[in-house]
């Protein structure tokens, strides 16, 4: 018998149900109730009324205690959460276990944000106009938060959107990806078990895109958090009500420079992991590797060998290193892009084939043309491109040529070359001797150009979900 998740919006009725299937074999995992226009209106009116009634706001000690209990419950159920995340999202169990550990750390990070939250004193009494006054700021929640999430990290992305909202004191409505809503539902259930009143966080899978848009564009929304495709994110941003703030996190096509002096024994496992991890379905996956001509072919062949030796298959098995893509049509798309690159002159060193309707072989292409689709777009599949270069500046120019920009990396033992790459990359973060997908959840995480708007990372999102309100006291005793 599969699990069924009822609609988690108090006072609302569902508009049908949605089946959630495993991306690896298509088996039915669970079903969830679906929210229509009426349920969305109920959620918005409930959240807005809660925010407007300041007597109902949760105190900092209450929020801390709820999040502490939630983290404890998650720790007790860590293996269950990891298995279920692997089943619904396709990320191998070994990586889903890491995701759950990160998610628990993320909840603790939210607690730290509450404890460290404070305003500032504004200097007064320093000129005739400011005499007899004292000024300081205090931070308070911005209002109703609406979050729309992606499929590829079904638990940790929810932590990044819901956790800071709860920590900052904002009522939050979260729409998880329809492919992977179960980790979200489980986390919200844990929050409620930990003592969070139901009205403070309401998850929903919606009936269609029009309903989703009406949720996001409503004038009662104070902050919109989006993780997903650029096309959808920028479209939704254009429809926000006046005054609504937002943060958007889209995809990239992460570039890496590997200089001739790089330690390949150290670099290659990192590059292979960074490119093939979660079948390449990560917004900062290693995609475009620019290697000095003296080492490029050797580097490409060694990554290809590593990919050939990776275990591809059932994500719930401990030995699996690369799982399925989220949908069979994504396997077809990746294969079409790879075939097009080969037709335009790329040399296939490994992979380039479907293992099944749901899994694609880890693939390395050497020197694809600049006009190949894989060279111009985020692949979001287990494909690494290796390009040969003679001059690092030329490689950086090519790396910067796309309209997307996120994290980048450089491998070299020369500090001057590392700093030159850091200064010249179009990127919000540059990793030196590490892969582009490195991340800890308290660091800033930001897409530039078409890759996003605003800054992610739990403390940064927490900050964005609050306002800083100033008070000025006037007294003859000051």
Write the layout of secondary structure elements.
Elements: E1 3-5, E2 17-21, E3 28-35, H1 37-52, H2 60-76, H3 78-89, H4 93-116, E4 121-122, E5 133-141, E6 144-148, H5 156-168, E7 172-175, H6 182-193, E8 201-203, E9 205-206, H7 209-217, E10 221-227, H8 230-238, E11 245-249, E12 254-258, H9 264-276, E13 286-292, H10 296-308, H11 328-343, E14 347-350, E15 363-366, H12 373-376, E16 383-389, H13 392-399, E17 404-405, E18 407-411, H14 415-424, E19 429-432, E20 448-449, E21 452-453, H15 458-464, E22 466-474
Parallel strand pairs: 1-3, 3-9, 6-7, 6-10, 7-8, 10-11, 12-13, 12-18, 13-16, 15-16, 18-19
Antiparallel strand pairs: 2-3, 4-5, 5-22, 11-21, 14-15, 17-20
Helix pairs in contact: 2-4, 2-6, 3-4, 4-5, 5-15, 9-10
What do these coordinates show?
- With 478 residues, the protein is of the alpha/beta class.
- The chain folds into two domains: 3-250 and 451-471, Aldehyde Dehydrogenase, Chain A, domain 1 (3-Layer(aba) Sandwich), CATH 3.40.605; 254-440, Aldehyde Dehydrogenase, Chain A, domain 2, CATH 3.40.309.
- The protein has 15 helices and 22 strands.
- The chain has helices at 37-52, 60-76, 78-89, 93-116, 156-168, 182-193, 209-217, 230-238, 264-276, 296-308, 328-343, 373-376, 392-399, 415-424, 458-464; strands at 3-5, 17-21, 28-35, 121-122, 133-141, 144-148, 172-175, 201-203, 205-206, 221-227, 245-249, 254-258, 286-292, 347-350, 363-366, 383-389, 404-405, 407-411, 429-432, 448-449, 452-453, 466-474.
- The strands form five sheets. Strands 14-15-16-13-12-18-19 form a seven-stranded mixed sheet, with helices on both faces.
- Helix 14 links the parallel strand 18 (407-411) and strand 19.
- Helix 3 (78-89) crosses helix 4 (93-116), helix 4 runs parallel beside helix 5 (156-168) and helix 5 crosses helix 15 (458-464).
- The chain is globular and about 75 Å long.
- 51% of the residues are buried.
């Amino acid at each position: 018998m599969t699990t069924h998740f009822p609609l988690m919006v108090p006072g609302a009725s569902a508009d049908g149900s949605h089946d959630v299937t495993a991306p690896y074999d298509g088996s039915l995992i669970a079903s969830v109730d679906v929210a229509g226009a009426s349920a969305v209106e109920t959620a918005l009116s409930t959240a807005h009324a809660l925010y407007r009634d300041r007597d109902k706001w949760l105190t900092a000690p209450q929020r801390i205690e709820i999040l502490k209990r939630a983290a404890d419950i998650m720790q007790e159920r860590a293996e269950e959460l990891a298995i279920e995340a692997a089943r619904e999202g396709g990320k191998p169990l070994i990586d889903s276990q890491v995701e759950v550990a990160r998610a628990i750390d993320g909840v603790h990070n939210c607690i730290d944000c509450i404890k460290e939250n404070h305003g500032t004193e504004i200097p007064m009494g320093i000129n005739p106009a400011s005499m007899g006054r004292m000024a300081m700021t205090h931070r308070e929640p911005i209002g109703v938060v609406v979050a729309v999430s992606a499929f590829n990290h079904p638990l940790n992305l929810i932590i990044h959107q819901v956790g800071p909202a709860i920590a900052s004191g904002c009522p939050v409505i979260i729409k998880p990806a329809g492919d992977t809503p179960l980790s979200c539902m489980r986390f919200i259930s844990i929050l409620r078990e930990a003592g969070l009143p139901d009205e403070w966080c309401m998850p929903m899978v919606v009936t269609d895109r029009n309903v989703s848009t009406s949720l996001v564009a409503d004038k009662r929304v104070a902050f919109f958090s989006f993780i997903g495709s650029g096309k959808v994110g920028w479209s939704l941003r254009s429809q926000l009500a006046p005054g609504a703030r937002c943060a958007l996190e889209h995809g990239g096509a992460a570039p890496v420079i590997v200089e001739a002096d790089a330690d390949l024994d150290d670099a290659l496992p990192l590059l292979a992991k960074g490119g093939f991890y979660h079948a390449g379905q990560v917004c900062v996956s290693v995609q475009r590797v620019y290697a000095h001509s003296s080492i490029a072919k050797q580097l490409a062949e060694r990554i290809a060998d590593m990919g050939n030796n990776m275990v591809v298959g059932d994500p719930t098995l401990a030995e699996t290193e690369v799982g399925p893509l989220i949908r069979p049509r994504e396997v077809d798309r990746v294969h079409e892009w790879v075939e097009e690159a080969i037709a335009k002159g790329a040399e296939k060193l490994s992979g380039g084939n479907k293992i099944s309707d749901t899994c694609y072989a880890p693939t390395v292409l050497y020197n694809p043309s600049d006009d190949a689709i894989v060279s111009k777009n985020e692949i979001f599949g287990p494909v690494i491109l290796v390009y040969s270069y003679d001059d690092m500046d030329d490689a950086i120019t090519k790396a910067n040529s796309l309209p997307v920009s996120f994290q980048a990396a450089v491998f070299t033992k020369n500090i001057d070359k590392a700093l030159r790459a850091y200064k010249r990359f179009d990127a919000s973060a540059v990793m030196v001797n590490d892969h582009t997908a490195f991340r800890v959840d308290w660091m800033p995480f930001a897409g530039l150009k078409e890759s996003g708007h605003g800054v992610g990372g739990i403390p940064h999102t927490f900050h964005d979900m609050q306002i800083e309100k100033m008070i000025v006291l006037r007294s003859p005793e000051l």
